[in-house]
Amino acid sequence: MSAPVPGPFIRVTNAVKRFGDFVALGGISVEVDKGQAVALIGPSGSGKSTLLRCLNALERIDEGMIIVGGEQIGAWVDTSGARRQLSLRDQARQRESIGMVFQSFNLFPHMTALENVASGPRLVRRTARLEAETAARALLERVGLGDKAGSYPRQLSGGQQQRVAIARALAMKPNVMLFDEPTSALDPETVQEVLNVIREVRESGMTMLIATHEMEFARQVSDRTIFMERGQIVEQGPSAEVLVSPRTERCRRFLSGLTGTTTVA
Q: Domain of 137?
């Protein structure tokens, strides 16, 4: 990533993303300072996941601009407004510094937990095997899975797989971590262990965006909360305000309809 620059570390300006006739993002703007944690909430299909995928160059916006650490993501927009898509190689390079954790873990089934975590540094950054595996073991210890280094994904619970996925993303030493509903595929008994790991990552000072339905968790770990619906930002502000005393009727109705939120121990 580029050297630090003044202003927000992440800046999304008038971002539009379409899938055919469907407008997933309708010209939204978001700013996130370095070291800040932002929660994205809203009903399914509101654009939360699309926004995260655009931030990670997994999807390309059709209009607008996304800047992370001073670098335009996915495309280059010149002073005249002309857009030039970046090459696949450049997009892959950008993703090295923007870690993402998905709903469905996405671990390599033929690799052990240790191999999954070490794979990014080894394959992408050509880190020596011993160095990559030493760092991977430390990360597995950090997420409470030091004794599972030799286990394959099929031998791990959903919560354990998600913690391996978090360790794998951290192995690339990202500047930003994106979490896309990281507990939605988990049973209630394993949600807490994953949330506690995310909380620890937050306390390390990592810049984070978290799409989540865990409202109490969002209130505790995020500085700001953004409520989205139909590709638009309906409300945003300090988490203690948005999640406790929302200004808009739509956000109030959304929050009142949620049950079973998880409190961080």
A: 98-173
